[in-house]
Write a structure and sequence with these properties.
The complex is a heterodimer of chains A (about 550) and B (about 425). Chain A has 17 helices and 14 strands. In chain A, helix 3 runs antiparallel to helix 4 and helix 5 crosses helix 8. Chain A is globular, with a radius of gyration of 23 Å. Helix content of chain B is about 40%, strand content about 10%. Chain B has 20 helices and 9 strands. In chain B, strands 2-1-3-7-9 form a 5-stranded parallel sheet, with helices on both faces. Chain B has a two-stranded antiparallel sheet with strand order 4-8. A two-stranded antiparallel ribbon of chain B has the order 5-6. The termini of chain B are far apart. Classes of the chains: A alpha+beta (about 550), B alpha/beta (about 425). The interface between A and B is large, with 96 and 100 residues.
Amino acid sequence: MTRSIIDPITRIEGHLRVEMEVEQGVVTDAWVSGGCFRGMELVVQNRTPQDAAQIVQRICGVCPVSHAHASSIAAEKAYGITISNNARLVRNLIEGAQFLHSHILWFYNLCALDYVNPLDALNANVPDTYDLAQAAGTSMDTDFYGLKEKLEAFAANGQLSIFSGNWFDCDNGEGYKLSPELNLICTAHYLEALKMQARASEVAALLGGKMPHVMTLIPGGTAFVPTESKLDDLWAMVNEIYDWVSTTMIQDTLALAPAYTDVLTFGKGCGRYIAWGVFEGPGWPYGGNYTEQMIHRYLPMGVLDEELNVSDVQEPLITEYMGHSWYKGDGTYESPYFVTEPEFTEYNVEDRYSWVKCPAYDGKPMEAGGFARILAAYQRNVPFVVEQVDAMLVALGARPGQLSVLQNTLGRTASRQIETLYIAGLMKEWTQELMEAIAGGDSEYFKEPLTTTGEGTGFWEAPRGALYHSEKVTNNNVDGYQIIIPSTWNLAPMNADGVHGPMEQALIGCPVQDVEMPINALRTVHSFDPCTACAVHITEPATGKTFKTVTSPWGVK
Amino acid sequence: MEDLAKTTDVFSVLESRGVSRRSFMKLCAGVAAAAGLSQMAIPRVAEAIEKSVIGATSGDLYPVIWIEGASCTGCTESFAQIETPDVATVVLDVISLNYSETLSAAAGWSVEEAKAQTIEAGNYILIYEGAVLKAWGGNALRVAGEVGTEALIEAAESANAVVAVGSCAVNGGWCAAHPNPSNAMGVEQFLAEEGIKTPVVNIPGCPVNPEWIMSVLVDVVMLQDPGLLKLNDFAMPAGLFNQTVHDNCERRGHFENGEFVYEFGSEEEAKGYCLYPLGCRGPQTHSPCGVTLWNNRRSWCVQAGSPCIGCCEANPNNPGDNWVQVNAPFYKRFRDLRVGDLHFQPEPVAWVLTGIVAAALVVHGFGMKKTGRMDGGADFEPIRKWDEAHPEQSIGVYADPKTGGPVLDPAICEENTQHAAAAADEVVNDYEKE
């Protein structure tokens, strides 16, 4: 029995530690620990919902738009506002730009270095590289000769910069399995992706002022009013991104998959999924029926059980447990509001070991994320998703509809490329729709609140999965705020019954050859695209209020 | 002439490495401007950069450790959006980024090892992102089995300089906002408490703008002459942070004309009017956002229709003066304006700024009706042309409605300062009725 520890996990957002028990080359037990506490919910207490929407964005620099969005939806539900159609389109576009930014960055610049060795690209034969790229149908925008020369100059200098201390020679030199030619192609795309993720952020900046932390997404709609020249720029940029995404991401995934078929054999996790849905749908506004609204989102809401049967979310079934996290007590708390007080004890995997709390749906751990959304969309018969998932299954040698083939580390990684392509296409549709709406005379972007007192919940999605913001507002003053973040679901510690969280479950069973460089564990962690800054949250009542109950102090909704 | 010849060599070296002449020139000019140098200094800047590029005569890349404290990774993210030069050029051709939790290929002990080796070798720069958390003996932030504050001390002690990027690193940022649950503070204050003498450069912003980081990196790291970098009393680059957003705002003309947006997404917004009544913190926020712009110079907050919410406001010596605390509620006027608390402008600039802020207070933001002139300050119109032509609709308060003139009644000034928000609402209501 050996302990294998990865701390810090790099190429993620935030501070994460993974500790594993390894027996005979396989992980038999695992503990995931989120390392940072900041206390966002406390900071937004006693502020206005408008301010809260701006402040909560700062939870995460990778998915700020989603937090502003979910917070704005919560405020709009509390205030009885239905945003205008133009505001819906502008907000979908800002959110979509962030998803594209996040997914491109995650796949090529964070996750791919678990599979791609850029230093081995030095050994590539360039003409063969061109042949391979052509055969794989992937983009050849980069001058492979020039890139190889650039890498040679880099290597000759001797300093490894971001490649310092890399694991490229792990597993006795067999951990990285791509040919030098494919490594050169993927390195080219690593560099192209850096530019393209920035282009996607530029779309968010065009509509939101700047990115990270957009400025125009506010409760009531949007502060951004499109001009003709902005729309022209938007149209050019969404096309540029679509063209790149559609010629690289799925092609590259399928090109590297044959070398890593073993990664299809581990990392399933808990096998239950949640998605709250994202990108408001075309039949807006669904007569105020929240469930209909969520089902008709472009990526719809869905709760999936072990057999992947889909059902609708019920808010009171969401709970959080604190007994293994650094908070006082060991109660289980129900949504939407509950009381938790931070208290660091010590890092002890037998007791408390994380700043992340343990959420459950209907008492069970659930996986959130791009994979969960794709499965929910598939089960809800979103045509584009069904078609692409079936095509990917066939490419991997499975039958259409055989979703279990994707329930593993590589499947979780690959499915996000389908989502990226879907959103890249939708960006073009929404831009066209917005231009037509404006040409047709629509000019409403913002609505003032009808009331300044109420309660509301924003069910939404961040790139990393199901996102929940809930707030209680009295006279434009927030006096209860609760956030449950996708990575909180995924990085959850053990629950009260000793059942591991989704990522812990996914790690158990991972083959580990070298406990000092457990590459398959790292691949599994990255497949979730974890975000620990997001994951750590607490709630506390506003000063002067007294509630020590385990459920909502304002009663169950 | 000699400089010119050298510059040409620099270009050829860089071009062979895929850095375009255009992007290189932009970089050099930006650096020179940020350092307060004249255009004549650009060749010297160029030469210094050239020397730090791979394969150039003096060789090596400058080692950089980038530590994320209590961060949202937004500043790393923002850095990754840099376009001139792009981020790949920066991390492969300009610096050796030996430790970055977001970008490093290595993980776990190997990446910690890379950091330890860099610290041991010395002669590196530390970039710190996020707040310093002191709660629970520093355990509010744990990395690699140790508390975050220890990691900062270890890396800062031997660094040539510490660059605190983003408002959280400067003074705790939003983490330090009431009730500051994790006991957050900025890097400069923390290091001073620990008795660590390494110089700190503060670059505020939520997030930091990548162009600001780049200009500081080049000044401090490559020119190896921090003296070129003029810092103000907050240890912020003076070339970047001594003017307000309002000074350089593209909508400033509408402010002068008294043309304002009163509701988000309105017809006035479509015309690009001034966002002052919606709470814009441009007049009191020191930052060059309207000059450098954001995301490949695509846009910025005001251009997109949002008032400035003052995210660059950060007093490094006081976490309580974080931008959230100082500026919330963001979309209301003047809740927390600190008149006279302008710490670091050279005197003439301070006078001008004080003039603007005081004038704005007096008239509650409906056009700058400041009259006369102040010693060492700029000229102001005695009375706005528009107001002169529309005396019945004039929204300013003049000593004399015909000839203008400042409001000098100290009682009124005092009252306005104390009850600015309420008074402003009143004026807004009156104006809207009209």
